[in-house]
């Protein structure tokens, strides 16, 4: 069997009339082809395609993408007999969406002020290979550390409050959102692979003249990050200095079909 590449890194654009590409490519003899597509086009140096193994290799950078990556293969047989028909592609999400919100405790100490100075997330899987044929990931051994540092603090950095009501949060104001929405590799967080969270912050109690400093070190709860799901972590910090973390809530929502 002779392998023949019909297209390689071919960009398609969508107009009102459908998908188009240049130059026009004609079918090769009676060859049957497997089509593999990736969205968006031109993902940069952290993204390579292994055509022979129908795999996509990805390295997550220290500033994770906020763009969702999709991959697809043709879902029906393609041969010269269908040369004038469309190629049906079923796209799937490759990544997991993760957002971290940090609130201050709005309970007994609702009039205290709190500012985040530094947030570190570590032990996140950094690299892997995605098989579009099997919709599975094979991971490399590298781990990623994400860090946000705020050195120019002002009153606008005071974070909003949240109160835990039997597992439901009542919130007011705006939380600290140090990394925005992060697109990360799907992975299982368990006892041998937990993501560490460190938060350094300043606290000013009601009627106090000065700010105190404190920090929280913990891990995100064990869970499996699934591609195509959104995971929102609401971390509520207590103003009581010997209770450094009050509550971590995890919300999971699907994106739906691409």
Order of helices and strands: EEEEEEEEEEEEEEEEEEEEE
Give me the Rg, rounded.
24 Å
Major sheet attributes: 6 strands, mixed
Number of strands: 21
CA-to-CA gap between the ends? 34 Å
Name the helicity range.
under 10%
The parts where pLDDT drops under 50 for at least 5 residues are none
Question: How are the elements arranged and paired?
Answer:
Elements: E1 13-15, E2 18-20, E3 36-39, E4 47-50, E5 55-59, E6 70-73, E7 92-93, E8 96-105, E9 113-125, E10 127-131, E11 136-139, E12 143-149, E13 161-165, E14 168-172, E15 181-184, E16 187-189, E17 196-204, E18 212-219, E19 223-225, E20 229-237, E21 247-254
Parallel strand pairs: 8-13, 8-20
Antiparallel strand pairs: 1-2, 3-6, 4-5, 5-10, 6-7, 8-15, 9-12, 9-17, 10-11, 13-14, 16-19, 17-18, 20-21
Descriptive report:
- There is one protein chain.
- The strands form six sheets. Strands 8, 13, 14, 15, 20 and 21 form a six-stranded mixed beta sheet that branches. Strands 4-5-10-11 form a four-stranded antiparallel beta sheet, with no helix packed on it. It has a four-stranded antiparallel beta sheet with strand order 12-9-17-18, with no helix packed on it.
- It has no helices and 21 strands.
- The protein has strands spanning about 15, 20, 35-40, 45-50, 55-60, 70-75, 90-95, 95-105, 115-125, 125-130, 135-140, 145-150, 160-165, 170, 180-185, 185-190, 195-205, 210-220, 225, 230-235, 245-255.
- It is elongated and about 80 Å long.
């Amino acid at each position: 069997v002779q392998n023949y590449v019909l297209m390689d890194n071919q960009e398609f654009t969508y107009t009102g009339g459908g998908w188009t590409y240049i130059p026009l490519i004609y079918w090769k003899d009676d060859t049957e082809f497997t089509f593999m597509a990736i969205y968006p086009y031109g993902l940069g140096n952290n993204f390579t395609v292994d055509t022979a193994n129908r795999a996509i290799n990805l390295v997550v950078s220290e500033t994770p993408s906020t763009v969702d990556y999709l991959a697809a293969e043709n879902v029906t047989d393609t041969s010269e007999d269908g040369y004038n028909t469309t190629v049906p592609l079923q796209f799937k999400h490759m990544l997991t969406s993760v957002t971290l919100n940090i609130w201050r405790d709005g309970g007994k100490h609702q009039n205290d002020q709190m500012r985040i100075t530094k947030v570190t997330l570590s032990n996140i899987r950094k690299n892997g290979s995605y098989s579009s044929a099997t919709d599975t990931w094979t991971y490399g051994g590298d781990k990623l550390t994400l860090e946000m540092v705020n050195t120019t603090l002002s009153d606008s950095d005071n974070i909003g409050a949240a109160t835990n009501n039997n597992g439901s949060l009542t919130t007011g104001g705006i939380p600290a959102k140090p990394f925005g929405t992060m697109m990360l590799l799907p992975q299982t967080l368990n006892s041998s692979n937990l993501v560490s969270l460190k938060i350094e912050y300043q606290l000013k109690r009601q009627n106090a003249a000065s700010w105190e400093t404190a920090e929280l070190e913990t891990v995100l709860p064990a869970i499996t990050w699934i591609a195509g799901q959104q995971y929102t972590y609401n971390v509520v910090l207590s103003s009581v200095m010997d209770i450094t973390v009050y509550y971590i809530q995890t919300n999971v929502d699907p994106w739906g079909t691409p």
